[in-house]
Design a protein that fits this description.
CATH superfamily of the largest domain in chain A: Response regulator
Structural class of chain A: alpha/beta
Helix content of chain A: 25-40%
Shape of chain A: elongated
Number of strands of chain A: 12
Order of helices and strands of chain A: HHHEHEHEHEEHEHEHEHEEHEE
Distance between the termini of chain A: 70 Å
Oligomer: homodimer
């Protein structure tokens, strides 16, 4: 979109906003474009009207301005950040757009400053990785900047298109793989229950056991937070059970790596003494010791689809579906095998 | 810098360029700003003059435009990409700048298109990760966009500030750590000899051996390309020697992971049967099995320094030094121990 005030994609014009606010059209334009030469009272009144009318800027026809997309992470330390960046950058490049990458972790007071910068560079669209940013969402609506959320961590905000992975099917595939190898006692190191994706993986695990006529043993489910430390602790907790499982499904690759390290620390071998399955298929688990059997999330593809969706919104079109899940695949490597015969 | 034609930082004005080219000042401005409404012959003539005069745009005083920095990778699949992005984003955010991340791998014909986009978004500075982009360097000079190179892979281009890590000291520290544990036959899985950083690590290894009065055995040095597959193959080659080493220094973490997998494949334990040291300290090697002893490159700090340097150039200042190396540290974890007594 142009940095100049432009009229709407069919709903309300800035002329109408100006009339209702009792200010001039250039003043509304200054508010829309984040300029500082507007009094705080006027800005608040105009922003309120813009929000109430769901004002959206019209895509620019100016060929000279480069298209910029914003890709925003909660935390760039996330292990799959680089995979999503790869997908977004590739699709954005194809569309002739630049990708501005930023993180907001540990800067909760910064949402306002961040939106000010977003305005100043006239961002054409925002791709948010994980949600928990409802205040940002509201500010973006005021700016009329289209928003797409990738892999929402919680309940997605209303009216925001989201792109995720088929977590339930993935949880089921991981568990069915272990069942097919002959495992009957299968531990789960779960993700945080406040995250939808973690709940879906847990339910997929349950559904697979149920499908095989196995009664769920709740002691085989231990909590985790997706990080390696939790996989380490969770696996040790499972090993301390009176009757430990013969296989573990860790709801993230990082927890699977922690579990493998816990087993190594006790002199147990993977997969001879215990099978381990992860979830994500991060590049590094191809070279874990042993290479990890895991559920592949198409992170780069999710990023690409997010670009196509946000550009579609920027052109005033609607996405095909407000909520898309891309398929997950089981990738069998060396960390799973049939259970050892017990003496 | 502003997207408007601005005059020079002390050398030549666009009025002078226009006079020499026999065109109007607005035409020169259009060339400088990458507009399409200029004939190819005129563009070539003006660009040639701009280059010959080393034309640089003056930093803008307009407060409304957001500062944008471009961070360019050869390949976003690089394992340390995300660490550098983290550092750059943090320092850019502190400076109120946005970070545009892009990759040019596999798009060698795209340099022209890339610079066109760079122009269109009026980038304030470019941070290039690894070099091999001399054509880009030339085009950036025409645009007057400051450039900083992080961790150059080859001979850095003249006049471009570069930021690297102390590779020679790191190679020496890794080798000295193994010597201190009592190892005498230490293998090296080297990096590509065309890369300066790989040559420096190899020389550090040699210097440490020499310092301990050990004669270099050339059969203990095997080639690699920094990737896990090379570590796997290189470690197997070392194990096939008539007298294998008791420890291996892999010149990248990824090669160290490949080496560990090669050892696991032969039923050998790390560190009991063989010690392994890496180089990089990627986040994931804290949870390799076993956690990897490695040489830490301050990748995020290198990114931060690159931002400060490129912003300094954008303000017409000079960097303190055209070539900076940040220190490396040995991080001792569980993959190294004293050699086993041989029977």
């Amino acid at each position: 979109m142009a940095a100049h005030g432009a009229d709407t994609g069919g709903r309300v014009t800035i002329t109408e906003i100006a009339r209702q606010a009792g200010v001039s059209v250039p003043t509304v334009s200054r508010v829309v474009n984040g300029r500082s030469d507007v009094s705080p009272g006027t800005r608040a009144r105009v922003e309120d009207l813009l929000r109430r009318h769901g004002y959206r800027k019209r895509p620019s026809s100016s060929a000279s301005r480069a298209v910029l997309l914003d890709l925003v992470f909660n935390d760039l330390g996330s292990p799959w950040a680089v995979e999503i960046i790869r997908g977004v950058e590739e699709a954005a490049h194809t569309a002739g757009a630049g990708t501005v990458v930023s993180a907001i972790h540990g800067r909760s007071g910064d949402a306002r400053e961040w939106t000010r910068n977003l305005r100043a560079r006239a961002s054409d669209g925002v791709i948010l990785v994980t949600s928990a940013m409802n205040t940002l969402h509201e500010e973006l609506q005021i700016l009329g900047v289209p928003l797409v959320v990738v892999d929402p961590a919680g309940s997605p905000a209303v009216d925001v298109p989201t792109i995720g992975a088929a977590n339930w099917s993935g949880g089921m595939a991981a568990t069915e793989h272990l069942l097919a190898l002959g495992h009957r006692r299968i531990g789960l190191i779960a993700g945080p229950s406040r995250l939808l994706c973690a709940r879906a993986r847990l339910d997929g695990y349950r559904a697979a056991l149920e499908g095989s006529g196995i009664t769920l043993d709740p002691s085989l489910i231990v909590p985790g937070d997706f990080r390696p430390e939790a996989g380490f602790a969770g696996c040790n907790a499972l090993l301390d059970l009176p009757e430990p499982p013969t296989a573990v499904f860790a709801a993230s690759d990082q927890m699977a790596l922690g579990a493998i390290e816990a087993l190594r620390g006790r002199g147990l071998r993977v997969p001879e003494d215990m099978s381990v399955v992860g979830f994500d298929d991060l590049p590094e688990v191809r070279w874990s010791a042993p290479p990890l059997t895991t559920v592949r999330q198409p992170l780069a593809d999710m990023g690409k689809l997010a670009v196509r969706t946000v550009l579609r919104l920027a052109h005033g079109e609607q996405p095909d579906s407000p909520r898309v899940e891309l398929g997950t695949d089981l990738v069998a490597r060396a960390s799973t095998a049939a259970p050892a015969a017990r003496g």
